[in-house]
Amino acid sequence: MELKLIVEALLFSTHKPLAAKQLTDLISGRNEDEPEGVLPQHKKLKEAQVAAAIEELKVDYIQLNRSFQIQELSSGFQLVSKPEFGPWLKRMYEDRPNRLSQPALETLAIIAIRQPITRADIEGVRGVAIDGVMKTLLERGLVKITGRAEVPGRPLQYGVSQKFLDHFGLRSIEDLPDFEQLKKKYEAAKPRVLVNVAENPMDQGHGHNAPVELVEKQEAKPSEGNVPSPT
Fold this sequence. Notes:
With 231 residues, the protein is an alpha+beta fold. It has ten helices and five strands.
C-alpha cells in the first residue's frame, strides 16, 4: 500500500492537525511493543518520507481539482475544505460560535507582537481596561500565561497559545496578515492615558460586539469554508 494513501486516511479520520512525527509514529508503530498492521517497509519510516508523501498528496489534489486541500498549521497538517465552498458548507452549521470582537482581535494582535507582555502594558497601549477581553481570550485558550515580569509586584505575563495559531490557520506569528505593519504599529505604540470608560461598552463586560468578518477570514471554521474533513 502506498505511503501517501495511509497518510491521507489518517488526516481524513481526525479533526485535529497531525504533525509529521505523529504520522510517522502511527504508521511505523514505533511507540508500540507489538504493533499490528505495520508494513515491513514502514518499520524504519522517517519523517522526511512522510513529508514527501504529503507533498505528493498536495500535488494530486491540485491536479485533480479536489474540493479539499492539506493545510499546514503550527501544530501539524490538516485536511480541510477549500474556502470557495464556504457558501454551501455553512448551511450545515447554523449554530456558529460567537466571533471575536474588534477589541479582542486588537488585544490579540498586541499580545502576539509584544509577547511576553503584562496586562498593564496591554492596557497602556490600548488605552482601555481589558478585563472582559482577557477573560474571553483565556477562556477560549487563545492566550496563555507565560510567566511573571521581573518588576515590582511581579505581574503575570501573557503570550498567544498554540491554539491561537491553529485557530487562525498560521504556522507561526510571522504568518499573520500584514505582520510587519502590525509589528511597527504595536512596537512603536506609546502608552495612552487609561480611561474609566471602555471605547466600546461591551469591552468592559464580556468582550464581544459586532463580528469582524475580514480579520478572521483564515479561521478554520465551517462558516468560512475551511472545514476539517468529517470523521
